[in-house]
Automatic annotation (TrEMBL):
InterPro entries the record matches: Leu-rich_rpt, Leu-rich_rpt_4, Leu-rich_rpt_typical-subtyp, LRR_dom_sf
Pfam families membership: LRR_4 (PF12799), LRR_8 (PF13855)
PANTHER family documented for this protein: NISCHARIN RELATED (PTHR15454)
Transmembrane segments: none
Lineage, opening ranks: Eukaryota, Metazoa, Ecdysozoa, Arthropoda, Hexapoda
Coiled coil: none
UniProt superkingdom: Eukaryota
Organism: Rhodnius prolixus
Gene3D superfamilies with a match to the protein in the record: Ribonuclease Inhibitor
Cellular component annotations (GO), alphabetically ordered: cytoplasm
Listed name of the protein: Uncharacterized protein
Amino acid sequence: GEEITDNEVEHAQIFYSGILDQDYLLKSYSSEKVLSLSELTLTNSSLRQVSLPTLDNLTSVNLEHNNLTNFSSLVYLQNLKYLCLSNNQITTFGEIPDAATRCFENLEVLYLNMNNIRNLEKLELYRAPKLVALFLHDNELCSVQGLSKMDNLKHLVLDRNKLNAINPSAVADLINLKNLYVEYNHLHSLNFLKELKSLKSLFLAYNKILEYETLHNFTHVSKIKELTVYGNPMCRFNSHYIALLSCLPKLCKLDGIQFDRNHNSPIYKFEEGS
C-alpha cells in the first residue's frame, strides 16, 4: 500500500471540509487501488469526521493532529493493527448502529495521547481485546477505570495526567502488563502494584511517593528490571537506593543508571560515602 501524499491532503481540505470518506479516496485513487491500500496517513488535515468503507488490506492508520471527537467509524476496519489518533479532540468512542457486536478484532497499537481525555470508560477500550500497547499520556485522567478485559496489554503509558491514585481493581485484568509509565502525576500510593506481578519496567518519576509506601508495595513486583523514582519525596535520602535493591532482586537499572549487584556499583558507592 501507499501513504496519501501532502497534495492529496490538500484536496481533502478543499473539497471535503474535514470529512474523510469513500468519495475522497475514489477521487484520489482508482477503486482497485483503494481496495489495496495497507497504510493511510492524513495528518494536520482538519478532519472532523471519518467514514471509511471496509478496506480489508488496511492495517495502519495515522490521523494525528486533526479535529476528531470520536473514532467509532474506524471499527469497521477489521484488519487494522496500528491506529494513531494523537492530538485530536477525542473524549469518547462514539456511536455506531450495530455497536454491541463491533470491535477492533486485530488492533494491537493505539495512540490516544494529547486528546483531553478525562474518562477512560467512555472510550470503550474493551472493543480492542488484542491491544498490546496503549498510549494515553498528556491527557486529563484522574482515574484509570476502563481497562477491564485487556489481558493482552503489555505497554501502558499514562505520563502527565492528573492521577492521584490508581485503584487496584481498575488494573486487575492487566495480568500481562510488562511496562508501565506514570511519570509526572500525583500518585501517593502504590497499592495497585499487587495486581501487576508481570511488570518488568516501571517509571514513577515526579510523583508524591514516600519511601515507606514504596518499599511495602514493591514486594509484589519482584520481576522489575528497570525503575525510575527520582523527583519523589522518597529520594530526599540516599538510603532508598539500597532499600530498593534489597526488595527488587532483578533490578539492574535505577533512575537511568545501569549497574550490577556488587559494591563497586555507583549506587553503592554513593550510599557508602553519604
